[in-house]
Specification:
Helices cover about 40% and strands about 15% of the residues. It has about 625 residues and is α+β, with helices and mostly antiparallel strands. The protein has five domains: about 160 residues, no CATH class; about 120 residues, no CATH class; about 90 residues; about 90 residues, Nuclear Transport Factor 2, Chain: A (Roll); about 80 residues. The longest helix is centred in the C-terminal third of the chain and has 25 residues.
Length: about 625
């Protein structure tokens, strides 16, 4: 502004005119010039700092007040000496806006603070008009001048409207529902609120609400991460945590490469007033302690001060579990030769209803007691399969015991071949009865049948599989509705039901088990002849006996190839084993022998999928 005020116009007289207007007696022009120079310099510093700074700095509010006071003082003098000019009035308006905006931002009254928010940029209107009047002899002459001032007015009106509609209250200032205790919560997303309070934390993608002492609170898991931890495996956080639920209920994490990750913080956000509290969960994390000291030492609430009513709702974090599960898929191997060969590595299976998509199956929360556990726990569980194979290899579970994390692995023996999620889903949906009922649910392709996450749960001596079935109508923006529950016990094909609910499905599975109990059967061609005493199984004859012998040989070939260390022969033996298993099952069906009955190969450690009979107590 000084350059404009003391510059020259086409006639070379503007500088003198401006100085005479604001300097008073001719003997003191340097004083007014210096005052204007200081005012303009402070104004430019404030504007540049506000535009470039990511966070507001309190020190600049002092500059705002000084600048506003200088503008107002000079404007009053100018207005008094030249009341016919708009310049003095515009200076007073600009100075008033600069002076009062920081004051409104610091007062306790919500009404005054709101008024300050509404007029936060209002001083720009007289400022722009003031600059233009200096360029046009004290008045807005051209159309461009008026357009610039009009744009500033429109921007201020837009900001006022934005504040009003943001809180969905058209009569905000005059409404009687607001008082001195009222607050406007602009940032309403729990993740965003925690990110503003603790930007150094990486937040879990699945926040969850809980009722704590009569109030609803959002609970978020906060991780401290780093990429410079020595001698540790580096991973991409987004790739390791992405699965079917990502962006469909959970938030995708940032594409960061890290090799250090700890669940150090449990953050809560009050659903009513938005209060954010950070509770220490890992009291041995040096990274968290350093960040806490960097923010004054009082940002993190000590672990000992975590309310018991809140700690009872803590659950094993999903994204942390995914990272640990994926690392365990390789590092569970302890033998060096087996590790470097990679033959015993695991993998996370794809979603059972669309395995070709390449999308990983998400883990699932269960409130159950798994084998080897003392009591029921709320735990996060995931099934894993051998690398490049579909049969089940292990169940990995994460839970809290005495408020401490515990990771457990339920590993199946190498000789077993329990079918994995993808195989079980295919066998259940290929069941003739289930397929006909699913066709009816689709209503001649007018509705879409959707499958939920397939849950694998060890029950008794077998595996219980539960998969929810949703129906989505063809209408736009239709919401999927839970209609049925697809359940199976054993290998996914022997005992299968499509029930209305979980209890109904369990009752039907037990009924199927009782009606299909294996009995001593007479082999074809030996009518009236009892099987040899003490064998407990019928005599295998014909095609069934040949299939059983071929299966025994395939199992022996797999063991021999595995012991030799020849991976080519090992892969060929596995393929031969799969073929032999399929032929044996087909021979069983052709002979009318139940797959769980006495017809079985002679090798005790047979990998033939077992289908135990479900019982009411199981």
């Amino acid at each position: 502004m000084l350059a404009t005020a003391v510059g020259t116009d086409a006639h070379g007289t503007r500088s003198n005119a401006v100085l005479r207007r604001f300097s008073g007696p001719a003997r003191r022009p340097a004083f007014w010039a210096a005052l204007w120079a200081a005012t303009v310099a402070a104004e430019l510093v404030v504007l540049v700092s506000i535009v470039t700074a990511e966070e507001p700095i309190a020190g600049f509010r002092i500059v705002f007040r000084l600048t506003g006071g200088a503008f107002a003082a000079c404007g009053l003098l100018a207005w008094r000496r030249r009341p016919d000019s708009y310049t003095g009035a515009l200076m007073v308006a600009t100075g008033f806006g600069l002076l009062v905006e920081p004051v409104f931002a610091q007062v306790e009254s919500p009404t005054l603070r709101l008024f300050g928010d509404l007029l936060e940029d209002a001083w720009a209107i007289p400022m722009i008009a003031l600059l233009l009047t200096f360029l046009s002899a004290g008045r807005l002459v051209t159309t461009a001048d008026r357009v610039l001032v009009g744009a500033a007015v429109a921007q201020t009106v837009f900001e006022v409207a934005r504040h009003l509609f943001l809180v969905r209250e058209g009569n905000f200032l005059l409404s009687d529902v607001f008082n001195d205790n009222s607050k406007v919560v602009y940032v309403r997303n729990p993740r965003e609120r925690v990110e503003k309070v603790a930007p150094f934390l990486t937040l879990d993608g699945d926040p969850y609400p809980a009722v704590v002492d009569g109030r609803i609170k959002w609970i978020l898991d906060g991780y401290t991460t780093a990429a410079t931890y020595p001698y540790s495996q580096r991973i991409n956080l987004q790739e390791e945590t992405t699965d079917e639920l990502t962006n469909r209920g959970t938030v995708a994490l940032a594409r960061d490469n890290i090799n250090y990750m700890r669940n150090s913080v449990k953050a809560t956000v009050d659903a009513y007033d938005g209060t954010v509290t950070l509770y220490e969960f890992d009291d041995h994390d040096p990274v968290l302690k350093a960040w806490n000291q960097a923010f004054g030492g009082k940002l993190i609430t000590p672990k000992a001060q975590t309310p018991a009513s809140l700690a009872a709702h803590f659950r094993y974090p999903a994204d942390m579990f995914k990272v640990q599960r994926n690392l365990l898929a390789r590092f569970h191997v302890t033998e060096p030769n087996e590790y470097f060969s990679g033959q015993d590595f695991w993998q996370v299976p794809n979603v059972p209803d669309d395995p070709d998509s390449g999308v990983k199956q998400p883990p699932f929360y269960l409130n159950v007691q798994l084998p080897g556990q003392e009591s029921t726990r709320f735990q996060l569980t995931s099934a894993v399969t051998p690398n490049n194979r579909d049969n089940l290899a292990a169940l990995i579970s994460g839970s809290y015991v005495d408020n401490k994390p515990r990771l457990e692995i339920l590993e199946l023996p190498d000789q077993t071949a329990i079918q994995g999620p993808v195989q079980v889903h295919q066998r259940m949906t290929n069941n003739a009865t289930v397929r006909s009922e699913l066709t009816l649910l689709s209503n001649s392709n007018q509705s879409q049948v959707l499958f939920g996450n397939l849950i694998s749960l060890p029950v008794g001596d077998g595996m219980l599989y539960v998969e929810p079935v949703y129906v989505k109508s063809g209408q736009q923006d239709a919401v999927p509705l839970l209609q049925k529950v697809l359940m199976s016990y054993g290998d996914g094909g022997t005992y299968v039901v499509l029930a209305n609910n979980l209890k109904d499905g369990l009752d039907k599975l037990v009924a199927q088990g009782k009606s299909n109990l294996p009995t001593t059967t007479t082999p074809p061609g030996n009518t009236g002849t009892e099987p040899p005493a003490g064998t407990g199984q019928p005599v295998l004859t014909g095609q069934l006996a040949q299939a059983a012998a071929a299966l025994d040989k395939a199992i022996a070939d797999v063991k021999t190839a595995q012991a030799s260390g020849d991976f080519v022969k090992y892969g060929q033996a596995l393929q031969a084993l799969d073929t032999a298993m399929t032929n044996f099952q087909n021979a069983q069906k052709a002979a009318g022998v139940p797959t769980t009955g006495p017809a079985a190969p002679s090798t005790p450690a047979s990998p033939t999928p077992s289908a135990p009979v479900p019982s009411a107590s199981g």
